[in-house]
Specification:
By secondary structure, this protein is mostly helical. The protein is 57% helix and 0% strand.
Length: 86
Amino acid sequence: MPTPRTAAPAQPPVPDAAAPANYEVALHELEALIARMDAGELPLDELLVSYQRGAVLLQFCRDKLQAVEDQVKVLEDGVLKPWKTA
């Protein structure tokens, strides 16, 4: 009797890279990833890993910016005021 065919194993998860030290480090890494991806010279597997890392970095940056915006609202008594240019 033939053995049943099993589905191909799922892709292994992307190893968790260390969280960026701060917003500037995350932004710099994200910009570098985008430049490499835009160059179009990455192999498909590396492109996928880079895309996934970029999504993590983008969320990290968004979260940091949201935290700063929330702090500014607190400092401005709950009202986010527009930036004034000199």
